[in-house]
Structures
1.
Amino acid sequence: MYASRPSIDHARCTLCGKCVVICESNKLAIREKKLHVLDDCAVCGHCYAVCEAGAVSFVALRPRVFKSFPYNGAYFPPGNPDPSIVAGLIGSRRSVRHYTSKEPATETISDLLECASMAPSAHNDQQWEFVVVRDRAVIASLAGRLLEYYGALNRLVANTFMRRLAGLFMGKKVDQYYSEHYSGVQRRIAAAAGKKDLFFYGAPALIVVHSAMDGNSPLENAQYAAYNICLLAHAMGLGTCFIGYASYLLNRDRSWKKRLGIPSAHGVHAVLTLGYPAREFLKPAPRKEYAARWIG
Ligand SMILES: Cc1cc2nc3c(=O)[nH]c(=O)nc-3n(C[C@H](O)[C@H](O)[C@H](O)COP(=O)(O)O)c2cc1C
């Protein structure tokens, strides 16, 4: 078991006090000309990142290693990189629904997971776990399960009487499903008859992000990690798409969770398709007007 606290190399420590100031939980103090670690912490690594002398380290933390592209571990200070690059990247990531048959290399996917784990998380819990599915038979089988599940739901809500009846127990969700998803699911059912998968769009890989539910804000943490994957994937020439249909089903289907090696008590927070885009976008995402209240 790793210590949940920094190790201090006192021979290197200059007692500059920067680590003491940056520590959010006040776990560091300089007393009698010595830096003291007062207690275990959330291992956020802020103290490590401000120490010019290299006196702070964490046994539990390993350096980031990317294998499919060169990265020397450089830190980008505020103001870098150029905001037009960051805004351009964010705006250029799109949900990719057309894939070539080219399979992303193992190193490429490992790098995406590495980047996922750089996301912020409540209390620095970093509880995210990943399942990478590259077996096309498993992807096809899961798409088949989705067809079965949502096909049954569609047959139920297609009937006005059953829709009203289900609405008595489930409220507005039933009407919402009918108006927002019924026709999309029908399209997927029709496509499947022609051997076309419109749940995963023929993607050669899926990344499932899941976690235990007992930490702090597990859903949000995992989704930030998933979004990191989407952004880096775009920069690496890959495409992704969140598949909410699959997350919803996996959270209700114990046998599929088991098949993917996901503990039954875990929540599935994101299912992403992954592959090389077969269609090209030429412009960044337009968006609806948003509401914002400015106070002050
Ligand atoms: C939580 C979530 C679930 C989604 N589920 C699906 C899905 O099941 N199938 C799909 O094709 N797209 C899905 N999407 C993609 C959205 O439709 C897409 O993000 C939105 O239309 C905006 O387009 P863009 O991602 O290209 O900017 C999902 C997105 C999110 C964030």
Note: Residues 94-95, 97, 241-245, 285 surround flavin mononucleotide (CB under 6 Å).
2.
Amino acid sequence: MSAPLVISGATGAVGWHLVRALLDEEPGRPLRLLVRPSDVAPDARVRALFPDAPTGRDAVSVWPCDLTRLDLGLDRVTGRRLLDGAGAVVHLAARTDFRGDDLAGYLGPNVQAAVRLGHLAARAGVPLVHASTAYVAGDHAGTLGEDDLDLGQGFHNAYERSKWLAEEALLRLARGDGLRLVRVRPGVVLPDAPVAGIPEGPGPLAYLRLLANLRGQGRQEARPLRATGDPTGQLTLVPAAWVAAALRGVLALGPAAGPCYHLTSARPFTMTDLVLALHRAVPAVRLVPTPALPDPDPLERLVERAGAVYAPYRRLRARWHRARLERDLPALAQDGADAAWLDRVFAAHLAAWRAGPAAAPAPRREEGAVRAYFEAHLPPFRGRALIEGLRSLTQTFSITVTGVGRWRVAVAAGRLVDVEALAPDAPPAPVDYALAPAAFLEAVAGARSPQALFFARAVVITGQVAQGLATATALEEFFRRFPYRAPAGRARGRTA
Ligand SMILES: NC(=O)c1ccc[n+]([C@@H]2O[C@H](COP(=O)([O-])OP(=O)(O)OC[C@H]3O[C@@H](n4cnc5c(N)ncnc54)[C@H](OP(=O)(O)O)[C@@H]3O)[C@@H](O)[C@H]2O)c1
């Protein structure tokens, strides 16, 4: 039996694919998964993601942990038991969003946690396989070697910088404390198809969803849309299953593994490759990379804002050596990252999104609160101006709260004219907002702006997207002035 593997980040995109591959290809190998509690207990999270996994100390065991705690939530004894007899620690967990500009918010989960795990691994004499990123290259415009780290590069965001700092700190531990360290630097990892319960893939998939939402919304959207970027800029995109295979390959090398592997595609994708693939997937919209965006129209502004965190990635020049990967793991030289693969990835995601999420029933309390909003909170505003001075707003829209129901709301000259529940099979209004109960309650409580929810892809606007966004922006003021305080524990009402 192979030695147990300790894995952090199994509930993430890369970790899920690794654990899935291990369960399928190395059944019986004990896996110790470090999982943080969410509103669901770690055990239940793992059961939901890997329902067929055998459980127990000699199979899959779950170890509650939180990377943001100084001790990772593992006391001394638990930390020692965790690594007892382990073959390796595979550290994948990290804060991976690009939203925060403030490095401090990334240091705990991405740097200190890696160092803490590194200390535990060094003390136990267990090797650490650490997931970094190809984008430690930052703004380097040449080729990054597998042994390069500091090329004087700058970084595009706090995430990149934190991943670089983690590598630097772990290398110090390897030199000073004898940590056996292998770093892997994946490119942008795309799953072949969405996996329920796993975060949706990064950049290209965010664009795919945005374009799919704009698709066929009238004459305007059918023409080319300019977006800032360099048509010859390059990205490395890699299949998640290939990354999982590469991680298993690195683990199988054992002490023969080199210090760092680039899990990047043999051939990069240019921005032109990418926009062509997006256009093949969503023919009604065509992005046109442009150096600058003078006089953007509302949709161009919308796409630009929605993709703002990816702006630097649309102009990159970096490339990566991967000679060590090809020498040590020749079977992985073929990464499968080509145009046909990207077409399949996009098609699979579109098909899954069109089929819609399996609408989980809303928790009773949330369902009751949503109904109370439409049945008790909103009706007294009938005939009243929603916000003083908002005369320009005339729009009928529907709000679909997943798992609860759909309501039609009519506003004329800034006054609420009507609000009514729609039958489950009634068509949506020309503008429809679809969102989960929790996101809806955040918006109407004034806790999160409708725009922020849209950019976080927590609300999908279908129909006339530009009008929908303008209406949502106007209503934001109403939500702030008249925040909805959900009644506690309201029972489930009748269905719409
Ligand atoms: N995906 C890519 O394109 C890509 C590219 C290059 C490098 N990488 C690197 O590969 C690794 C995995 O990335 P990914 O895409 O799988 O990330 P992901 O989908 O965002 O998942 C992140 C994982 O880290 C866990 N995590 C985050 N904060 C935590 C905390 N405070 N305590 C415990 N666990 C925490 C998450 O747990 P929850 O489920 O509880 O949130 C989740 O399991 C990361 O190190 C990332 O930097 C990824």
Note: The mean pLDDT is 89.
